[in-house]
Known about the structure:
This protein is mainly beta. It has one domain. 12% of the residues lie in helices and 36% in strands. A hairpin with a 6-residue loop joins strand 6 and strand 7.
Amino acid sequence: MRKLFLATIISSACVTPAYAQLAVSANDNKVVNENGKNVVVANAAPDTVSIIDLKSLKIVGEVQAPTSVVGPPLSVALTPDESYALVTSAQKKDPN
């Protein structure tokens, strides 16, 4: 067990940090915070996923994303070359 612990510490020290140039944000448009309280928005716009350029801090892309009462997509990832974003949608209730 001690050898496994030491191997984990050593391998963690060898990892180089990653520096992001883009961020992917899942945005919930159904609820807003007003004076510290969550308020449901009537006729809310669809939830979205935004691609943000971290150097300029500008949104470079945005798409609508399927959602549910659980909220917007929670898992997003970019490929290393930033050519694709993978977005998983929230769970939906089975209508049957």
